[in-house]
Design goal:
This protein is of the alpha/beta class and 309 residues long. The protein is built from twelve helices and twelve strands. 44% of the residues lie in helices and 22% in strands. The model is unreliable at 296-309 (pLDDT under 50).
Length: 309
């Protein structure tokens, strides 16, 4: 079987359209149709069914898509491993939460680019659970999450340190006058939350429920900048990483409320698949990101990876 058929199948499943997949792949639509028919004949199943004007995967198609992702990922690894330039060139795919992408990763990425100028870097935003799933599926080489510490049988998770989480409000908000804010003090407050699936949002919602505080969700954004602007204009309060608001707090355009809770704690974590094969460049990136927590002289990338296992 030609493995290109699997690539075509994956693109059709992604686009939910033979026509669109053909455009993306640069094939004639008839060629795409023929390749899918060959796959259906090969496995003796129907892979797609019509759903209105679109198509969708059958149960057999969903199963084959999972296997296709694994096969294509293995083939990509083989090509990378066998290439003479694999140690020096390629693409570094990183899944990350927005706050770390904006306020934590840039200096590391700048250093890595200087050390590995031939490597392309791609950053993909997402929430923690989706980022972990992306690493499992091979979409990302690494993921950076802000979450509570947890173990996953398929993933290696490296704790890069605790990230301070704060509740922010407009400078003239009544709660800024208090010496200490408790969870119960948030009764009646309007919250501006990050999107559903955000780990620290889930933690805060649990704390508020335990305090029997009704959660008034007035706004929800995937953008930290939008959240900060709405809070500054008095539309509500929000829970955000301190690094995302340190500058505004220093200028006085946002106020950090004197609130703390033992359960509102998250950690910067570097995630990668336990079976991930790493080129020299990826090993160098891993060493760069973990050098601070080692507290020792630089090690070779191979030794650094061994010590993390």
């Amino acid at each position: 079987m030609d493995t290109r058929y699997l690539q075509t199948f994956r693109e059709v499943a992604k686009c939910q359209s033979f026509t669109r997949a053909a455009e993306v792949l640069g094939y004639a639509q008839s060629s795409v149709t023929a390749q899918i028919q060959n796959l259906e004949t090969e496995f003796g199943v129907t892979l797609f069914e019509r759903w209105g004007r679109k198509i969708r995967l059958t149960h057999a198609g969903e199963a084959l898509l999972g296997y296709s992702e694994q096969v294509l990922a293995i083939l990509d690894q083989a090509r990378e491993h066998l290439s003479e330039q694999a140690q020096l060139a390629g693409t570094l795919s990183i899944g990350t939460v927005e706050s770390l992408a904006a306020f934590y990763l840039p200096p590391y990425l700048q250093t890595f680019r200087k050390e590995q100028p031939r490597m392309r870097m791609q950053l993909h935003p997402g929430v923690c659970q989706d980022l972990r799933q992306g690493v499992k599926e091979g979409k990302y080489d690494f993921a950076f999450v802000l979450d509570w510490l947890q173990d996953h049988p398929e993933l290696t998770s490296i704790n890069l340190g605790e990230e301070k989480i704060v509740v922010i409000a407009a400078p003239d908000h009544p709660l800024t006058k208090k010496d200490r804010v408790e969870a119960k003090d948030f009764s009646g407050e309007s919250w501006i939350f990050t999107e559903a699936g955000c780990s620290y949002r889930a933690i805060m919602e649990a704390v508020l429920r335990d305090a029997e505080v009704t959660i008034d969700l007035s706004l929800e954004f995937g953008s930290l900048e939008a959240i900060k602007q709405c809070v500054a204009h008095g539309l509500g309060i929000a829970l955000v990483p301190y690094i995302a608001v340190a500058e505004e707090a220093a200028k006085g355009t946002l106020a950090i409320l004197p609130f703390s809770h033992p359960e509102v704690r998250v950690y910067r974590q570097l995630i990668y698949h336990k079976k991930k094969w790493m080129s020299q460049a990826l090993l160098s990136f891993l060493e760069l990101m973990t050098a601070d927590i080692r507290g020792a002289a630089p090690q070779s990338p191979q030794l650094a990876a061994q010590n993390l296992d």
